[in-house]
Amino acid sequence: MTRRPIVLQGVGRLGSAILEGWLATGAVDPADLIILTPSEKPAAEAARARGARINPPLEALAEARAFVIGVKPAKWLEAAQAVLPHLAPDAVIVSVMAGVRGETISQGYAGRPVVRVMPTTGVAQARGVATLWAADAAALAVGQELFEPIAETVLLDDEALMHAATAVSGCGPAYYFAFTRALAQAGEAEGLSPEAAARLARATLRSAAAGVEGTEGLDALIDRVASPGGVTQAGLVALNENGALDRAVQDAVTAAVAKSTELSA
Ligand SMILES: NC(=O)c1ccc[n+]([C@@H]2O[C@H](COP(=O)([O-])OP(=O)(O)OC[C@H]3O[C@@H](n4cnc5c(N)ncnc54)[C@H](OP(=O)(O)O)[C@@H]3O)[C@@H](O)[C@H]2O)c1
């Protein structure tokens, strides 16, 4: 039985990360990959070296069972025009675009089933997070098959919640990086060299991330570090004085939800 290929359209920051994750885990056999890219990309070339087809004649798309949209939301409709006449009617459209609704994508792809996926670029190391939503069970299964090997997946049953999931996990890595930068700056202000402060802050982020690998609750993890009346507890009290930290994080997520909602209108 011939296997039907997977098409990846767009090998930018996220498209490259997805491709790297698939190649590293073997989640998708490179021989089953068709990649569409206007310019040469290292991740696509690595896939080509292992058997993927790059920009083949568009007739090759007729065999595809899944078509992953990895272009920017402003480009997707234009990018759809060229490929649409060549796709099989049952090809599942997998969109990683922020903010474009499933129904809109399905209309742009002549009624084909759609699964929306909001991944982080950690998929490159098979350590991503991906939120999935689909109205169609078969489309959801395709999304799970493509992303479970490279991400922790969270399934939503309400598409409207994609905004909240985007604001928490799509944007989240940048929040942690911004916090890490602030931590390094604070260390510098207390006399550490810029290099020592940056290394300590970054290594601490990695170390803290290792701590959440298990199933222990977040309060218990905090308690492991912060003994009553101790140094860390003094820091934590100052960090969240009058709920300042909780409020700042809530404001960030609320603002991101509002922006995501505005962009999808
Ligand atoms: N970056 C993230 O962390 C992230 C997270 C979640 C979701 N997303 C979503 O992922 C999508 C891509 O974002 P990105 O950050 O990866 O953007 P990006 O780096 O700008 O990548 C977009 C890619 O699309 C390619 N492209 C444009 N027109 C095309 C066409 N007609 N056919 C094939 N490829 C085409 C571009 O190719 P050229 O380079 O040759 O112009 C570019 O490499 C967006 O919809 C975004 O909402 C991104």
Automatic annotation (TrEMBL):
It is found in: Cytoplasm. Residues 8-99 form the Pyrroline-5-carboxylate reductase catalytic N-terminal domain. Catalyzes the reduction of 1-pyrroline-5-carboxylate (PCA) to L-proline. GO terms for biological process: L-proline biosynthetic process. Belongs to the pyrroline-5-carboxylate reductase family. Residues 159-263 form the Pyrroline-5-carboxylate reductase dimerisation domain. The gene is proC. One of its GO terms (cellular component) is cytoplasm. It is an enzyme of class 1 (oxidoreductase). Keywords: Amino-acid biosynthesis, Cytoplasm, NADP, Oxidoreductase, Proline biosynthesis. The keyword Cytoplasm applies. Pathway: Amino-acid biosynthesis; L-proline biosynthesis; L-proline from L-glutamate 5-semialdehyde: step 1/1. This is Pyrroline-5-carboxylate reductase. InterPro entries: 6-PGluconate_DH-like_C_sf, NAD(P)-bd_dom_sf, P5C_Rdtase_cat_N, P5CR-like_CS, P5CR_dimer, Pyrroline-COOH_reductase. It comes from the Bacteria. GO terms for molecular function: pyrroline-5-carboxylate reductase activity. NADP(+) binds at residue 37. Pfam families: F420_oxidored (PF03807), P5CR_dimer (PF14748). It comes from Brevundimonas naejangsanensis. Its EC number is 1.5.1.2.
